[in-house]
Structure formats: structure tokens, C-alpha cells
């Protein structure tokens, strides 16, 4: 037990010193990687603001992924007040669906005391999530790493821990470990 406590203390010191980098490789068809499973250890009561950069919050399933991520933030121990989303604008036939979907999410968040700030970029490519407690998570596929469920009544349709994933890599840093150029 003492060894486990010492390891935890050492990891906390490494995180605080900004020397922490964790990489998670999600294999094709792997399960057990819901947003809660990936993010829970980085969310605490000090988290009040989140920045999400993901160019692909456009189609229905991507809007639902973003909504599920927002739900996780609202029900976790964090006291989320503001969510900033930077995404690309759907210039095709889905423009109205994207706009109305994000407005519905904004209104729903407002009903829970959370402000959603939307910004669009035509040049965004990389995906990252930053919490105001210093944690930064980069997911190769952004929030859209889940596969389509086999049917509406299959396991994984509602519980994303049971949903198969596309292969992707998740990199987790603390901002003390990153350098802005």
C-alpha cells in the first residue's frame, strides 16, 4: 500500500512539474473507451471552462458525440460554466442541420447554467480538448472515434463503453509540459 501511495505521489509531482505525457492507443474495434472512461481522471471541481477544437462537429452523429461530451461535463464533479467550441462550418447540404443542432445544444446547456461559445474556422485541422485545470487531450479522430452501432437495439447504442471504436491515438499532456511558439 505504501508503494502505491508513493507512486501516486510521484505521478502527482510529475504532473505538477509538467513532465507528464500519457499516450493511449485505441485499437480498431476496441471497447471501453467512452468519454467518461478517457476523461474522468482529468476532471475535478476546479474545471469550469473547456475548449474543444474539432473540425468535424457537423453531421448528426458528430453533433450527438459533442452532446454526449457536454453531458459528461455537466454531470461530472467539475463546475463547468463555459464550453468553447471551434469547428468548421458545413458548407454543403448539412449547414442548416449543423446550425440548428448546435443552437439546440446551446439552449440545453444554458438551461443547466452553462454557456456555449461557438466559433468557426475554415482552416482548422487538428483536434484538441483543453481544460482550465491545465490538462490538454489530443485525439487523432477528435470526438468522432466511435463506430456506427450495428443496429438501434444493439449493445453500445446507448452505453459508449460498449461501442466499438475506430483506431486512434489519444495524447494527454499538462500545459506546463507544452511550449507555445
Please report which band the strand proportion falls in: under 5%, 5-15%, 15-25%, 25-35%, 35-45% or over 45%. Answer: 15-25%
Uncertain segments are none
Helix content: 25-40%
Gyration radius, in Å? 17 Å
What is the N-to-C succession of helices and strands? HEHEHEHEEEE
Q: Which whole number gives the mean pLDDT?
A: 91
Instruction: Provide the spatial order of strands within the biggest beta sheet.
Output: 1-7-6-5-2-3-4
Structural class category: alpha/beta
CATH fold naming: Endonuclease, Chain A
Fourth-tier CATH superfamily name: MITD, C-terminal phospholipase D-like domain
**What is the rounded distance between the termini?**
42 Å
Number of strands: 7
Outline the biggest β-sheet: 7 strands, mixed
CATH class: Alpha Beta
Q: How many domain regions?
A: 1
Instruction: State the helix count.
Output: 4
CATH architecture: 2-Layer Sandwich
Q: Judging from the principal axes of the Cα atoms, what is the shape?
A: globular
Organism: Neophocaena asiaeorientalis asiaeorientalis (Yangtze finless porpoise)
InterPro entries: MIT_domain_contain_protein1, MITD1_C, MITD1_C_sf
Pfam families: MIT_C
Protein name: MIT domain-containing protein 1 isoform X2
Structure description:
This protein is an alpha/beta fold. The protein has one domain: MITD, C-terminal phospholipase D-like domain (Endonuclease, Chain A, 2-Layer Sandwich), CATH 3.30.870. It contains four helices and seven strands, in the order H-E-H-E-H-E-H-E-E-E-E. It has helices at residues 2-17, 35-39, 60-75, 95-110; strands at 21-26, 49-53, 82-87, 115-120, 128-131, 135-139, 168-174. The chain has a seven-stranded mixed β-sheet with strand order 1-7-6-5-2-3-4, covered by helices on one side. The termini are far apart.
Amino acid at each position: 500500500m505504501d508503494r502505491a501511495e508513493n507512486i501516486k505521489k510521484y505521478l502527482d509531482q510529475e504532473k505538477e512539474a509538467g513532465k507528464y505525457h500519457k499516450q493511449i492507443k485505441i485499437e480498431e474495434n476496441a471497447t471501453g473507451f467512452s468519454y467518461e472512461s478517457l476523461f474522468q481522471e482529468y476532471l475535478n471541481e476546479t474545471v469550469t471552462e473547456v475548449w474543444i477544437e474539432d473540425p468535424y462537429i457537423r453531421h448528426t452523429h458528430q453533433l450527438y458525440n459533442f452532446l454526449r461530451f457536454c453531458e459528461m461535463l455537466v454531470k461530472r464533479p467539475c463546475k463547468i460554466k463555459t464550453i468553447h467550441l471551434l469547428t468548421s462550418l458545413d458548407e454543403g447540404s448539412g449547414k442548416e442541420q449543423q446550425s440548428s443542432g448546435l443552437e439546440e445544444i446551446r439552449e440545453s446547456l444554458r438551461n443547466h447554467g452553462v454557456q456555449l461559445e461557438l466559433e468557426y474556422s475554415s482552416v482548422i485541422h487538428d483536434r484538441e480538448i483543453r481544460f482550465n485545470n491545465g490538462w490538454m487531450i489530443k485525439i487523432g479522430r477528435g470526438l468522432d472515434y466511435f463506430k456506427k452501432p450495428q443496429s438501434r437495439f444493439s449493445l453500445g447504442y446507448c452505453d459508449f463503453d460498449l461501442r466499438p471504436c475506430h483506431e486512434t491515438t489519444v495524447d494527454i499532456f499538462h500545459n506546463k509540459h507544452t511550449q507555445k511558439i
